[in-house]
Specification:
- By secondary structure, this protein is an alpha+beta fold.
- It has a single domain, classed as Orthogonal Bundle (Ribbon-helix-helix fold).
- Helices cover 51% and strands 19% of the residues.
- Strands 1-2 form a two-stranded antiparallel ribbon.
């Protein structure tokens, strides 16, 4: 498994953006979205909307995935 981030384009509320995450985080984000009956774009938009301060989207996604699997 590679630890090098992989860049993907997402559409958040009609706006395109690119996010670089490690493959394990992309896999987990897709699994969580499917589990919640949502698209990866919709889930990422919810994560984006919940950001505070100057936290980057990639960091917010990583923390979200970690919290999800820790039961938080």
């Amino acid at each position: 498994m590679t630890t090098r981030p992989i860049k993907h384009s997402l559409t958040l509320n009609g706006h395109r953006t690119s996010v670089s995450l490690e493959a394990a985080f992309w896999d987990a984000l897709r699994a969580i979205a499917a589990e919640q009956g949502d698209t990866i774009n919709a889930l990422a938009a919810r994560i984006d909307a919940g950001r505070t301060g100057d936290e980057g989207l990639a960091s917010a996604i990583r923390v979200f995935v970690l919290a999800h699997y820790r039961g938080g």
